[in-house]
């Protein structure tokens, strides 16, 4: 602005200096860039998971964190305290020597803790890097970046990196805020350590803090599908961590568990026909459908099914049509994912390209319901008498297990993403609204006598009891992360739950 133009402006008119404009832009960029980056990551999440990240590993990490929150808060506090004590002692040696001693002791601490908790050491790397970069003395930092301009350029362009690994300098560059180096470094490193430790190691601590007195651990292991026998005294159990199907005594705790005579190969699921006293389970390793005697768990017969699509299969038995249905999740899209078999002869009566994520049988109607987790958003009804699809309805993506509600003739469908249970008419599959549930709701079981719906979360390790008449949540109980299946025994007012880490029993007689 020249001298003449300045004389024409009112005396009280503010003159904006170029440096002020640059400062405003810098602050705006510092504030908005990280949220914008996170939004971009969210929009690209499907591509990132498909090409850059192993979804199974990420799922394990997220569930381990969500299922042990209190234990991780304790780890955070303990780590922060220990690191602060180390830093107070090491800083007396001077900036450079103190930094070196601090990092050596921090690395030794991380290796010890992560090995004791059987956590892969690579998960300790973020905590070590956050501590190393945020504690880096100015003398070393200025030697690496000698000129101010490259430092400012790095702060401006390193979105997500500057905020975490150089937080103190980022606050000074973006907002003019000066903080001590130790604060951000110790807080960020302690947080990363608390998030990185494996959930398996922290589960017993979380259970000691949160598991109700009415719950207990029946067994430790990797369990999936469970069903009570008709006496209610035994629980049939299978799972990825079990080479054989087990019958676990729940009525008489002194009775030893019984294992099937034939290996089941870590099967995910089975079907149990109480009237026929038979159990049907598919050994994916041998590609064979096994029939076991439910009383002795001896092998009665086997049926090779080499063309069933590979992937965890679900099985249903329908006495009304004397058929078995086996449905694979089809990890690889080869073979046939859906088969209807004659139970007596093993003849294939129908086969379809239906890679359902779960199935539910209504024996009174010989009707099978299928939900889909991966490749389509659909709820489907299949009539086993006519061997035809009689109804289908669009459903939300990533839905999980189902349950049948006889009182209102409804199909209930767990919607983990929305943390609710979708309701559908059992005949037409017309939507009937939803029931508010818990975060990550995955599995359900019903106590018809008391009108209670139990639902369990894959993520948080909790079981919730919901009053079906009012929709009111009657109670919420922590058992352990990665709950997979729940079964209800109304006679004993007991819920049984399986998980990736254990088998649980929960009494609910106190609910009103």
Automatic annotation (TrEMBL):
InterPro entries: Quino_amine_DH_bsu, WD40/YVTN_repeat-like_dom_sf
Transmembrane helix recorded as keyword: yes
Membrane-crossing segments per the record: 23-43, 63-89, 96-116, 153-171, 177-202
Keyword line: Membrane, Transmembrane, Transmembrane helix
SUPFAM superfamilies per the UniProt record, alphabetical: YVTN repeat-like/Quinoprotein amine dehydrogenase
Family matches, as Gene3D superfamilies: YVTN repeat-like/Quinoprotein amine dehydrogenase
UniProt-recorded name of the protein: Uncharacterized protein
Organism: Plastoroseomonas hellenica
Lineage per the UniProt record: Bacteria, Pseudomonadati, Pseudomonadota, Alphaproteobacteria, Acetobacterales
């Amino acid at each position: 602005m020249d001298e003449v133009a300045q004389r024409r402006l009112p005396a009280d008119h503010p003159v904006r200096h170029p440096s002020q404009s640059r400062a405003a832009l810098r602050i705006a960029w510092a504030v908005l860039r990280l949220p914008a980056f996170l939004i971009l990551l969210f929009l690209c999440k499907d591509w990132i998971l498909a090409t850059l990240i192993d979804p199974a590993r990420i799922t394990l990490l997220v569930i381990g964190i969500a299922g042990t929150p209190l234990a991780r808060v304790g780890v955070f506090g303990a780590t922060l305290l220990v690191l602060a004590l180390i830093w107070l002692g090491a800083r007396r040696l001077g900036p450079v020597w103190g930094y070196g001693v601090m990092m050596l002791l921090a690395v030794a601490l991380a290796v010890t803790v992560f090995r004791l908790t059987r956590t892969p050491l690579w998960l300790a790397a973020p905590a070590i890097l956050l501590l190393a970069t945020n504690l880096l003395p100015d003398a070393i930092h200025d030697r690496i970046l000698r000129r101010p301009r490259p430092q400012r350029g790095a702060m401006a362009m390193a979105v997500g990196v500057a905020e975490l690994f150089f937080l103190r300098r980022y606050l000074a560059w973006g907002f003019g805020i000066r903080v001590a180096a130790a604060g951000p470094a110790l807080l960020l490193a302690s947080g990363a350590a608390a998030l990185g430790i494996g959930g398996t190691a922290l589960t017993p601590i979380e259970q000691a803090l949160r598991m109700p007195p009415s719950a207990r651990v029946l067994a430790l292991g990797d369990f999936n599908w469970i069903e009570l026998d008709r006496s209610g005294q035994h629980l049939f159990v299978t799972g990825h961590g079990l080479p054989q199907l087990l019958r676990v005594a729940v009525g008489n705790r002194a009775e030893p568990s019984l294992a099937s005579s034939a290996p089941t190969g870590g099967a995910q699921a089975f079907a149990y026909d109480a009237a026929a006293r038979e159990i049907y389970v598919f050994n994916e390793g041998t590609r064979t459908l096994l029939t076991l005697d439910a009383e002795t768990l001896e092998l009665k017969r086997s049926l090779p099914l080499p063309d069933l699509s590979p992937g965890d299969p679900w099985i249903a038995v329908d006495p009304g049509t004397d058929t078995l249905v086996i449905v694979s999740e089809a990890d690889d899209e080869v073979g046939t994912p859906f088969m209807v078999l004659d139970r007596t002869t093993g003849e294939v009566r129908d086969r379809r390209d239906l890679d359902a994520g779960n199935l539910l049988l209504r024996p009174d109607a010989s009707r099978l319901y299928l939900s889909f987790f991966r490749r389509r958003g659909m709820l489907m009804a299949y009539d086993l008498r006519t061997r035809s699809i009689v109804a289908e309805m669009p459903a939300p993506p990533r839905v999980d297990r189902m349950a049948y509600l006889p009182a209102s003739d409804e199909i209930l469908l767990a919607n983990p993403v929305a943390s609710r249970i979708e309701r559908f008419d059992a005949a037409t599959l017309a939507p009937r609204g939803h029931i508010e549930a818990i975060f990550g709701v995955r599995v359900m079981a019903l106590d018809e006598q008391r009108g209670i719906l139990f639902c369990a979360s894959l993520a948080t390790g909790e079981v919730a009891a919901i009053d079906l008449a009012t929709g009111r949540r009657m109670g919420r109980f922590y058992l352990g992360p990665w709950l997979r299946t729940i079964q209800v025994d109304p006679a004993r007012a007991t819920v049984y739950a399986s998980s990736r880490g254990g088998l649980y029993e929960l009494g609910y007689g106190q609910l009103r």
